[in-house]
Fold each of these.
Amino acid sequence: MKSVAALGVLLVALIVLLPALSGCQRESRGKTLRVSLASDIRSTQFGVNRDENTDTVLHHVVEGLVAYREDLTVGPLLAESWEVSEDGRSYTFTLRPGLRFHNGQVVTASDVKWSWEYLLNPRNRWLCRNWYDGTGETGIRILKIETLDEQTVRFELTEPNYLFLARMAHMVCLCGIIHRDSLDAHGNWIMPIGTGPYRIVRWNRRKSIELERFADYQPLPGARDGYAGRREAFFDRIEFLVIPDASVAEFALLSGSIDIAPKMPAEVLPALARRKDVVPVLQPTLNWNVLLLQNEDPMLSDARMRRAIAHAINREQVAQNATQGLAHANGSAVFPGSRYDSEFQRRVPEYDPSKARQLIREAGYAGQPIRLQVNRQFQLDYSSAIIVAEMLRQIGLHVELEVLDWATQLKNYNTGNYQMMSIGFSARPDPTLMFDIFIGDRKKRSNVVFSDPAVVVKLRRSGLVTDPVERQRLFDEIHAAADADSSLIGLFNHTILDAVRADIINYSSWPLARPRFWGVSRQMTEGGEQ
Amino acid sequence: MIAFVLRRLTLAVPSLLVAAVTIFVLMRVVPGDPALLFIGDLENQQAITEMRERLGLGKPLAQQFLVWLEQMARGDLGSSIATGEPVSRLLLDAFPITAQVVLIATAVTSLLAIPGGILAAWRQNTKTDAAILTGASLSQSIPGFWMALALILVFGVELGWLPTVGHVSFADSPHGWLRHLLLPVAALVLTQISTLTRMTRSSTIEVLRLDYITHARAKGLTEAAVLYRHALRNAFAPVLTVLGLMLGHLLGGVVVIETMFALPGLGRLLVDAIFQRDYPVIQGCMLFIAVIYTVVNLLVDLLYPLFDPRVRLE
Amino acid sequence: MFNRFNQRVGISLTVFIVLLAVIGSLYTPYDPVAQNLAEILQPPSASHWFGTDQYGRDVFSRALSSAGDSLMISVLSVAIATGLGSVTGAVCGFFGNWVDRLVMMLMDAYMAFPSLLLALAITTMIGPRRYGVVIALGLTYLPTVVRVVRSVVLSLREKEFVEASYALGNTSAYTIFRHILPNCIGPVLMIASSLMATALLTESALSFLGLGIPPPAATWGGMLAESKLFVGTAIWLAVFPGLAIIITLLGFNLLGDALRDRFDPRMNL
């Protein structure tokens, strides 16, 4: 059989050639940083069509006046400084001198005014407009924005609000200052012309997005600090590769196809720790995993049932085992060790199975099934649910796991259609915003978990007052009330694992868990790859 | 022949229409709300309501379906809810990637499986036959993602010979293109090879039993000539059918391979759209897949008479 | 001969797996769902033959107890497909009127979608419950069975015994059930065995995409998919369910080959 013989030769030739083929890889690799992205960016319109990955990429391109520091305080970015008036109603920002947009134009106060007016114009469908036009729940309302001179711009609010800067710096709704040429003559979006250390040069949809260093960028002095601080770009290019599956990203990293794989599941940590060419970067974050109990459900409306569940869960054990030992229990919306942490925030029902059994007996539980909804898209939701379900079985609850796809679970979350649900909340930098996720008026928002009117009033107040002592008192009271109600059982904050090749220097993460690639560089080996 | 093609295409229309209705109903029955997924972790109920209205999700299903049909009649597949990108553009970007992997893999599979199957048939009930059949059975017994994983671990991670993710276009770098395609193609070949090998083997065995082969042998033709000129020709028709079915299905997307090698192909586009409840993309993809399948089958039917003279296009 | 040998191997593997499933449903050394968070990711040892998983569950017990679920999904989904498919195919092939044309048009429409994608869409709709997966796979394979049975019936229709049945004054329904369907058993068994293998593979692909049956129950495919994150550190999580799948599929496929040789050497599927 000649063809078979020929084929054999071909195969052998291929196998011999394979290593040769790989010899000439990594041309110009030294100057490009390659990073995995779990899904493609949704658009380049920040705050209009976005998700977490979109934010991650666009924060390298577009900047706001202020940004979060790693200690969760708000620091300057485009603004050099700002002043708040006596009555707390007006904020005057002074721009850093000599800043330029990617197209070379100088950044002026009128650009700031123009950008904000663009964002606040209902026609442009900016999703965070309700944060600033008085319609949102923690209602800030901007009365007017005026330029005082080339470098100064003043925002006037209808009433003082502590959250104004917290909102403005919040990473999910980038209040980016852009040049008006980001739009075409008809006012349609083209590409963001921002001020960031990188700009977008190529976007292959669903495949990759490439950023190029902005040569005229002027970094702030000092050190890199969250989204604020020094944003000095060392890599000429950043290439984000869309890799949906975490294991695939892991192998791409191990084989050297990418330099950084952010947000890997904790399960791969032992495998990474074994290797010399890869470094795991661990960072506790504000992302919070919780168990929701529907207090309008016939069975769970009995507070004793909810309390029993709270006592039946060994939170520390859940935290440890769901995260391969990376996280510790946190039953409060306030991040442990942060500014508003207190001994009151650490108070949660102790793990006490016998008390739990007694409570469900008192509540008259007779073995009815209780469904626990969860998804498989988010590994931590899933593994916590598996462990929690087993703990609840231990006290005699008949728990059934209901694994849904994320879209279905999200819909159920939003309509309150569940008995129990294992879910994770993304980081909100301020405790008011964090509590706001699950406390509110159920008539206005169907996804609210806890809606005691007295507590809702306290939460509103915590967003308005500026006195830290009073805010602390309010947060402690809110937590105590929420904890007594036990409709939400806080489990733990994520520790995020970013996997990084060993030759990448100075990569680190921060509590708000958005990867940043400025300040990062590659260590040159003696061979010199460049 | 043109008449045949036209007739077949007209016949395919009702099928496609049925497919379209099924897809539409199927996806709308699935719980989930694209508007919610769009807004994500922002608290903005009003925006969700507005979005639903804009997408026309509140309207009766029949009305939504008619709107979609009417759009399609104009050749407009709509735009993605998640990204705003036109569905036609998404399809045109995704399909070539799937097609490259699938076509190359199918070619390689045929090159290996057809000679392999003939060899096994020729050497029926010998060790060669046993070895080929066992190999085929084994490769058929391993889940696709696991096969891909093994290839990635060996050639990507351990040996470091080949990249494990992504796709480089041929125009950018022929060399990079080849390197990026080798592993996904290999994985696909390994999962597909057994069906074709078995098919070739059994249809060749059948032909080899026929009288004219005995005649040919009696005439003193060499074995190679018998196999090539008589057996292969006649055994090829059923093989072609299987090949066509395989190709028709694979071109619709190879989700597992696309996921494991981070290729932005058609299968991944559809799966992501299903998870995102991106209705226009789902509908567009499914319909596109149905059309591809129909066209591939038509092509196979057109090729058929070349290999089996008994078959005429009618 | 070799074929005889293959047949024997196929039958013994299948019997072996069925036995495992029976044993697994009656007895496992440990409770397959009980977690022991103090003993997570232990390598194989005397007390845990196949090691433990990330929740400290005994992998041997899990592999044993999931034999039932893995087979159940294959068998039930194929039963749905063959049950519904044979009757539909027989009716279509036998009458060959507008019903036939309508049904075949529907089947053509279904055939156009890759089975994994169709199963994925249906599973998303029903929700990833145990029977959701079964129904999804069953519906997915329906057209294949309908087509095969129909073509067999088309050729049977012309046979003498069918005419004889009519001549004796039997009704169509009687003829179909008494004479046509029994003659389809061979080909149906043959595709059933190859579909069972495919169903097992598709189920593992569904698990890989996150749509397998819900925990704490598990299938081998599901266990294999979950082990993906541990290939670097706890390979035993992958090896045992992987081997179980390979053995089962080998069994099914060889059995299918045997049936093919037995019933109809010309049927090529």
Amino acid sequence: MIQIENLSKTFTLHNQGSAVIPVIRGAELQVAPGECIALTGASGAGKSTLMRMIYGNYLAASGRIMVGDVDVVAADPRAILTLRRYTLGYVSQFLRVVPRVATRDVVAEPLLATGSDLVAARARAEALLARLNIPQRLWSLSPTTFSGGEQQRVNIARGFAYGYPALLLDEPTASLDAQNRDTVLQMIEEAKARGAAIIGIFHDEAARARLCDREVDVTGFSPEQAA
Amino acid sequence: MKDMSPIDRPLLQVAGLSKYYGARIGCEAVGFELWPGEVMGIVGESGSGKTTLLNCLAGQLAPDAGQVLFDLDGIATDTVTMSEPERRRLARTDWAFVHQHAADGLRMNVSAGGNVGERLMAIGARRYGDIRTQALDWLGRVEISGDRIDDRPTAFSGGMRQRLQIARNLVTGPRLVFMDEPTGGLDVSVQARLLDLMRGLVREMGLSAIIVTHDLAVVRLLADRLMVMKDGQVVETGLTDQVLDDPQHGYTQLLVSSVLQV
Amino acid sequence: MSEYNFAYLDEQTKRMIRRAILKGLAIPGYQVPFASREMPMPYGWGTGGVQVSAATLTPDDTFKVIDQGADDTTNAVSIRKFFEKTAGVATTERTAEATVIQTRHRIPEQELTEDQILVYQVPIPEPLRFLEPSEVETRKMHALEEYGLMHVKLYEDIARHGEIATAYAYPVKVEGRYVMDPSPIPKFDNPKLEMAAIQLFGAGREQRIYALPPYTKVVSLDFEDYPFERTRAPQDCGLCGANDSYLDEVIMDDAGRRMFVCSDTDFCRARREDGHQGAMAAAAEALT
């Protein structure tokens, strides 16, 4: 489902003497449907950078990132938008929403974007929020004022609302209590079971052990290592 | 599931669009495609040519060179060379223009209902009752209470005026909306409400939109794609989050790093 | 007589005005710009109508002037005397005898014929002016037949008053093309705009002339669910008893006694001469 070949990434800082900073070189990765891969490596090794490149949020310097039959490296913005709408989900560490929008609608949005009707989308959103223990009285409020853990769960609900065939999870269980952590892990297992290809960053070793079929240490993709 | 399959051709195709003010460049050699349902942001600082570009795109300013092809029943029609009557008809049917200053986009001496109804009457609506019903419906959609329908916009707050302007523009179901700093001059809380409203309308109506703004937070929340302008030239384009999070051009890097983090 | 050219204006000016009139007749309802002259009377006193009359009159014409339907107001008398002096034409108060009638704010009750010309004094010729202050823009709107704005005006009327409250200068569409201001005639007169006589409109200050050839189609704008309605005071004329003419309300004394009388004084007089009598004819007689 996800196939990365010879991928590299550099940052060019035009306003700091055009310094060119290579961050990833020669990255290779395959994830099959129903498979969950953990990215590992020290902080700053490039786990999040790699994940953002797969999502099309960072541009690659060279190489290929196939998600389904789309090469994210070469695709135009429109193709990436379609990919993100129907194929590739991303649960980031930060919730970014239009202020004032009700939590229920924040979660329902990916469903509305793929053509669900409002009633069905809201029902699905509410079921997810309930499962993740977001109190019902908060559903009609904007999540911008929620605690870190609540925001994280809203973000997860939103990421799991639509059944993407491929999922990117950046620290989905950080800042969650034991019960909610378990619920999220179950949801990831369910996604695996329905055939989603998953790439995750988990600092939580037990979670990694429970979910992941393989671990990929991104330190191997760092330019120093490869040189 | 609703039929979400978009029409498989661009709504707008722009090529080589240039406008000069004497020796000074307004905008130069701008080209892009906009697809149905897409929202594109144009960002840049004051004087970067973004408003000139918007006015050239919307037929409010005659460019010195270039094409602006708009999809009319499957035929890409150059709106630069089309006759003025055709262009003006487009401007009140398929296009909409939301001005930064509501006073430029509203008739301040006409009631809210009359403002919303004008485009309907312009395309031939002749039943008062129907016009009134539609005006009420649209006031509701932009969250203006129905009992304000006979009040003039002079009695409205800045945010209400802007929402009225949107209702007035969208009542005829346009396909393309041009917006010039639509949230400029509004309080932050009012901006948020307007952004949410615009996002909802864009999705529900399948609108395409081109939004000119200098506010990067606005484009992050509204725009699918971004075009960065400097000195009349497009220096960078791409997915909105990609351009903001991984800017490639020095100017964009400067622009992004200059924003205060909240 | 010898100190004035016929009808005051010089021949070149009259030719210029006639060209504008002919153009106006060729394009019914279209506002033709013309080089309006200073006249020996202030703007607002009918300088546009006077110039059109001057360009229209011939020595054989019989001229009538009415102001709000009356032949005997200051304005009507002054203009009549002006042409008596400068053109030496015959004048009359009888509608049927006149060949050229200059009018302010009324169309005579008596049906006009193909041998007559009706000249209107127009204060503001642009019907779109109410909502669009830019002349450049209104001209473009006329050129492109963008008349949605006219209905906005009527919409505002209904929204505010529950009906189309515009009672005079009620906009019309001419031959399915130009929207035209019929000058501030009461909307009661609008249906009479389709007539046998030539109608010429002159706006002196605004420097515009427009025209309706005989039998031109003139439709009052309206909404399907708020159709155009011809309105008059629901009374009979106190003097002649007419129940189909446009009436003026006249206050008779300090106690607030009032009566309704025909605004068209010639029409009313002719009816009374024919023996018609209104309910208050005797009382009115006593007052005078």
